[in-house]
Amino acid sequence: MGTAKTPWTDAENERLKALVVQGVSIVRVAAMFNRKMVAVRTHARRLGTPFPRMNEFRKKVGAAPSSSLRLP
After folding, report:
1. 19 exposure class (CB count in 10 Å sphere: 0-12, 13-18, 19+)
2. pLDDT of 20-70, one tens digit each?
3. Of the four listed, 10, 15, 34, 51, which is most buried by Cβ atoms within 10 Å?
């Protein structure tokens, strides 16, 4: 699973930032980019847009209607 040591493109960097801001889960983002979750999480941190902690994300999911968490 995933792509080993494939550099991130500028377009992927921008899309990753946008998805983090939109609140898309790290699991979905990793699947969208076909990369491991740890690689996506680490890269998002390096870009200055870290994913929220899973417990924060779970609180948000529990409080939000399911339609608001769909992929763009």
Report:
1. buried
2. 999 999 999 999 999 999 999 999 999 999 998 766 666 666 665 555 555
3. 51
Q: How many CB atoms lie within 10 A of CB 25?
A: 19
Q: Which helix (H) or strand (E) holds 15?
A: helix 10-22
- Assigned token pair, 7: 């550099």
Task: Indicate the residue type of 11.
Answer: A
Query: How long a stretch of residues is the chain?
Result: 72
Tokens of 18: 């946008």
Give the list of residues 6+ apart from residue 22 with CB closer than 8 angstroms, or none: 72
Burial label for 55, CB within 10 Å (0-12, 13-18, 19+), is exposed
